[in-house]
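TEACHING EXERCISE
Course module: macromolecular assemblies
Task: Read the component lines below, then compare them to the predicted structure of the full complex.
Student: A.B.
Group: 4
Components provided:
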Amino acid sequence: MTLALDNGAHPSAAARRSRAAWVTLALVGLLAVTSVASISVGASEASLKMAVSDLLHGRGLSDLNRIVLWDIRLPRLAMGILVGAALAVSGVVMQGLFRNPLADPGIVGVSAGAGLGAITAIVFGNLLPAAVLAWVGSGLVAVAAFLGGWASVLILYRVSTRQGQTSVATMLLAGIALAALSGAVSGVMVYIADDQQLRDLTFWGMGSLAGATWTKVATAAPLILASILCAQRLARALNGLAMGEAVAHHIGIPVQRSKNIAILTVAAATGAAVAVSGGIGFIGIVVPHLLRLGAGPDHHRLLMNSALLGAALLLAADMIGRVIVAPAELPIGIVTAILGAPVFFWILLRRHGSMGM
Amino acid sequence: MMKAENLSVRIGRKQILRDVNFLAEPGEVTAIIGPNGSGKSTLLGALSGDIPYTGRITLNGHDIAALQPWELAAMRGVLPQSSAVAFPFTALEVVRLGLPGGLADGDDALPSRALAHVDLAGFEPRSYQNLSGGEQQRVQLARVLAQVWSAVRRDRPRWLLLDEPVASLDIAHQFTVLRIAREFADQGGGVVVVMHDLNLTALFADKVCVLSNGEVWRTGAVSDVMTDEVMRQVYGIDLPVSTLPATDVPFVLPQALV
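Instructor-supplied answer key:
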């Protein structure tokens, strides 16, 4: 009887949980729609319908369209989903780690650090012994980006966190310094680089899904999927950390270990995303913020929902970039910045004065 | 029981606690009192396993340094002085974080009972960040209660460690909270509570540990410890301690100084 009474007493709490479930379902639908649209939008008239008919009956696509579909649009779709999910999940984990909704790998210099790692690998990669090079292959850039991202999160965390308290101002300022430093060193790399390398490098400044290949997808997928799974396992720890490290410890969370795993997770997801797509900002801040407003901050749901919405949002931004100045293509980083920066300002304004800045 | 032997804590260069011996028994409310900066919260922090120390702390016979965080969490709940929550969790969600499975734990009945217990029935859907300081403090207490709801588990006492639990509360809720502590002890659990209010301490504590400058000045029953001497030597004021005629409960009246 107590049970029935208790459950009846607060319908809105149960409602919040069931709303989160509906949100997940809606996001799956949204991702499906954007995926179909992403395959169909573009200069060539290839569409999903043609692709399905081609698969089933072996006709419906010209050879050119088959190439457009299988070697350009589908890897681009897969990469968009992976990168969008990775950026959004890194945002959630970083925000949980720093206990702050403004932490985002793009804003506080983690992407820049990962980019520096990737650029270093491109410029100096061929100095490595041939055997090592053959062994790491195309993964070299991804691994270097991961290491660059990892170093950045570690530095950032050391600088801005004292006794479990993160200072927002210090974090943002340290992020600016970190991004500036990474940018400067990257600039030096550009001068050292030869022509072919320079072409590879130009792409980092932009942030784009245009260079998507199945090889890149295969390089990024393991790191990104592993970090999403890892993040999901951190859900309880991130919930606890929201109340501070002391309380997290009191309720039985291995705080130091969770923090280390969280930092590695952010570095892996951001590093892999940056390695294949360059610097794409604001996904990590917009997506978790919208979802917290809509379905609450519980990380068990937030992480998975963020992965879904991040993927859908990045695909949408990619389509906007492809269509808006067609036949040219607007780099996706510009689109996400235009969509995301206002949200960042909005959070700043709303929380002004309550963040101990 | 909860026992600390030769406990010393150093933060930076400053020695905060020096050779503290402390004992709390299940079934009792043990209060830690002392002036500002005497090391009360640090002692509670060390007993909770939050801050590094030298010496030895045992909880129900286990050395706490050898226990995993989740093993400790199953034995004791800790209420800090204040807790800010980073994201817009509801009061119910904050309380559910105390459950062994956290928010993934499906049990809503216990957290709701814990909220009702701290006089916050109906506060479940309210946003924690928008509550008043005293309400937040009671939500946190409900979270701690949800963590160690039964005072005795598998014949072992569980523990409540409370750091100034009544500091931000109105007088009625000061009683609510201290009655909860009393009840927990009466059910066989152990309560260690840092207190400032000497009259409430005298009313609710079984045993008092007085800290002064990082050392234990005296430990004992309320009537043995709460004396004119403690006021003079530890707090440095000449305030006489009186006792109510009907009971032995000592009290101090600040007006006696005027």
